[in-house]
Amino acid sequence: MEKLIITAALVGAEVTRDQTPFIPLTPREIADEAKKAYDAGASIVHLHMRDQFGNPSQDKTLFAEGISYIQSETDLIIQVSTGGAVGMTAEERVQPVTLGPEMASLSTGSVNFGEDVFFNPLPMVREFAQVCRTYRVKPELEVFESGMVQNALTLVQQGLLLDPLHFNFVLGVPGGMPATAKNLLFLLDLIPLTSTWTVSGIGKHQLSMNTLGILLGGHVRTGFEDNIYYRKGVLSKGNAPLVDRLVKLAENLDRPIASTAEAREILRLLPR
Ligand code: KMH
Ligand code: ZN
User: Fold this and answer.
1) CA nearest 239: which of 6, 8, 54?
2) Ligand 1: which of 79, 107, 115 to mutate, judged by most atoms within 8 Å of the beta carbon?
3) Among 57, 78, 145, 221, which residue's Cβ finds the most Cβ atoms within 10 Å?
4) Digits of tens for pLDDT over the chain (272 positions)?
5) How far apart are CA 201 and CA 170, in angstroms?
6) Domain edges within the chain
7) Of 93, 118, 225, which is best to mutate to test ligand 1, by the most ligand atoms within 8 angstroms of its C-beta?
């Protein structure tokens, strides 16, 4: 099996300070959290930003500030979000890709998202894929339900996504595909053999989905965007403890952790 790539999704768009005092909000706090996750063993950070009021923002200048702190202190692979928060416009969402990070998330279809809809019609997905190509940014294809794999393969046929693809199966979002082993195996059957993949489990499903990812030879995403608890009823005191428990688990399961250089090679990221 390949070495294990751990992604830390540090912030997300939905978690608030009321839910956990440990969520980082400012670019400085997010960068400090990134450094701790890096020291614990993460090689990628999936980034969202928040404005001065703690609300989700895709403002390019906030991303530029956070990324410059992170890059001065770590060798982390930066993956910006193009998902932002539900209700944002396409123009708002795509902004951070124009900074030319190594990676960006790209959801390849719409999905119910709790009481809302996370809106990703195909023309918007095409546009985001095109911007990624222009800035030589590798998309991480965010899959919340199986139709999104089909859409990704359509974009490959249209020359907008290039082999090898990298998928992130985000399982357990209310309205999306439930976080079960059967669903993960089903999704794995749909993707091209040349693909790499990672798995994210929402809330209490984070650890079980990550464990499956380690066992099945995939990669794993952890962090506050998906889950704020270390165990039932106990908040995690940061993103780093969530990364650290995966490092320990992977060691026990004989799966070495990828360095940032190794992760770049596994994902075939373009040199910067
Ligand atoms: N905040 C969610 C609506 C992504 O980053 O690409 C979408 C999301 C996906 O977080
Ligand atoms: Zn995200």
Assistant:
1) 8
2) 107
3) 221
4) 999 999 999 999 999 999 999 999 999 999 999 999 999 999 999 999 999 999 999 999 999 999 999 999 999 999 999 999 999 999 999 999 999 999 999 999 999 999 999 999 999 999 999 999 999 999 999 999 999 999 999 999 999 999 999 999 999 999 999 999 999 999 999 999 999 999 999 999 999 999 999 999 999 999 999 999 999 999 999 999 999 999 999 999 999 999 999 999 999 999 98
5) 6
6) 6-267
7) 118
Atom of ligand 1 nearest to the CA of 86: 3
Q: Which atom of ligand 1 is nearest to the CA of 113?
A: 3
- Domain 6-267 carries which CATH code? 3.20.20.70
Q: Is the peptide bond before 164 cis (omega within 30 degrees of 0)?
A: yes
Pocket of ligand 1 (CB under 6 A): 12-13, 81-83, 85-86, 105, 107, 113, 118, 142
User: How far is the C-alpha of 243 from the C-alpha of 263, rounded, in Å?
Assistant: 16
